[in-house]
Task: structure prediction
Amino acid sequence: MSNSKVLVTGGAGYIGSHTCVQLLDAGHELVVLDNLSNSSPEALRRVQQITGKTLQFVEGDIRDRPLLDDLFANHSIDSVIHFAGLKAVGESVQQPLHYYQNNVAGTLTLCEAMAAHGVKKIVFSSSATVYGDPASVPITEDFPLSATNPYGRSKLHIEEMLRDFSVADQATNELSPWSIVLLRYFNPVGAHPSGQIGEDPNGIPNNLMPYISQVAVGKLEQLSVFGGDYDTVDGTGVRDYIHVVDLANGHLKALEKLDQPGSEGVSTYNLGTGNGYSVIQAVEAFEQASGRQVPYKIVGRRAGDIAACYAAPALAAKELNWHASLNIDDMCSDAWRWQSNNPDGYS
Ligand code: NAD
Ligand code: UFG
Result:
């Protein structure tokens, strides 16, 4: 694939930083735009240390149109990978305006600036949350879409907005139409095998894997397992955990697709392994990988949780030539290396 200059919004964050490593290794030039609202510049320093390559960092907000205009005027950007956004489900219920402002209005401002500067290739971070409570598993991309909270709705609104851009291009026979890839991530976990970059949540983690890691390292006492009476293998919730390095590779494949002739329009892919693991199975895999005990107790269900969610990943295999190659043991041992080397994250 030819090397190109990629704008990575949210590139200092968890998935963004891992994707920057893969992009630099593949020879791309990078400009990272991040307001550091949920990340540290240390992550980008380590990305450059891991790869031995440099990237350009612009500290700023995707809602800042003059800054975006300067950025596009000063760099000849070929395509955008758009990670920037807020992602905490509970917080989105308490602060919906903040979520719609950051995620929806932010993406709109970014796309307006892109169009004004003739950059119309974008890979967008969507989420399996857009499937709501699916009628069955595994989930294919044509399942009905619904969302149960403002975070999920912000992803749905953005997906719809991007589809509208493409429909308008078709209606007007636009000469340089949008090429858009929507990637619906399942549950990203794990860390770079170097142990230098990983997930660094603020405060007490909401998500399972970072919580388990912090119990294993002794920062938290025990895991509360939310619900033991689901209709699953052992009564606990089942999810499709995917190694963040596999996920990052999916973005390289998406970029390749954007560069192919005939990529105009919107393509949507699930990025998951296709395997579901229960909470108890995830705990056992982590104990095995870390050699530490992870005490837990089963408590009531968490509001809004679903029993089981895992991907049918065949479309990404067929059209992107992508599949996940790392398993739950790799996810746990890499998460553990990161957690034990960096008990306080980047700080
Ligand atoms: P993250 O919080 O680690 O990274 C997001 C980055 O965006 C952060 O560095 C943050 O500082 C930056 N940011 C936020 N708002 C911004 C703004 N207005 N302008 C500029 N920068 C801004 O999150 P992540 O886990 O790396 O997720 C990346 C993307 O993937 C997000 O869009 C998220 O919704 C999506 N996603 C994540 C998961 C997950 O479980 N981690 C699952 C599905 C989808
Ligand atoms: N869980 C526990 N205890 C915890 C945390 C989680 O038992 O302390 C359970 C949950 O009930 C669920 C499973 O572990 O059964 C996974 O929970 P996570 O919070 O890690 O992940 P979710 O599937 O609930 O949600 C995540 C992201 C969403 C995203 C979704 C799909 O948080 O933003 O994956 O990508 F939309």
Observations:
- DSSP finds eleven helices and 14 strands in the chain.
- The two ends are 37 Å apart (CA to CA).
- The first helix runs from residue 14 to 25.
- The mean pLDDT is 97.
